[in-house]
Amino acid sequence: MKRGPKPQVTPEDWVDGILTEMKKTDDVDVQIDVVARRLGVTKGSFYNYFESKEEAVNRALDVWLESENRVLAEMEATPVTSYEQIVERLFSTVGRFEYPLVFFLVGISKRHSEYHQLARKVQRERYTRVENMLFRMGVEPRTADQIAVALIPSLFGLSYLEYAHLLETPSVPTTKEQRWAAVAAMTAEQVKKILDGESTRQG
Questions:
Q1: Structural domains in the chain plus CATH codes
Q2: FRET pair for 33, CA 20 to 30 Å: which of 2, 44, 147, 162?
Q3: What does the longest C-alpha to C-alpha distance in the chain come to?
Q4: In 3-state terms, what secondary structure has residue 97?
């Protein structure tokens, strides 16, 4: 039986596929396996395009950051009138990519030290964007700084137990989707509770 032509696959196909799977799992081996099956190629052919798993992950994260930062910059050009809008913008769908990828970055940075610097860079960029939006709302610089300091760790999924308490949920969110939904559901009142908690800890 005559075999059909081999699938024409590019490095960009792999990167797009890995980006999609990053939203579902932070296990890179699983990502590669799923993408290989979808592309109709062997898992081993991955190394025809990338020297290592780390190279592929870095390429995917670069594409994601470039895309989301471009859209966020466009969003910043329009007025913001509430905390809810800030949270919504930071966690809304951005082009073809979505913010649950933030949780992948945080998760992988906890296990692999080489991603710590990138996670810190993204965290700093989010902090600056939150501050800028608050300034445009007319918030005083010191207050804007306090709000940004309180919001950013939570936006990065670093306080799930605190979220469960603040949101009065029966249990800690366990999946990326649940954590994302919990953050997106925050109200101005819940933001104020976070701020009150930050002030108490700092005092």
A1: 11-202 (1.10.357.10)
A2: 2
A3: 76
A4: strand
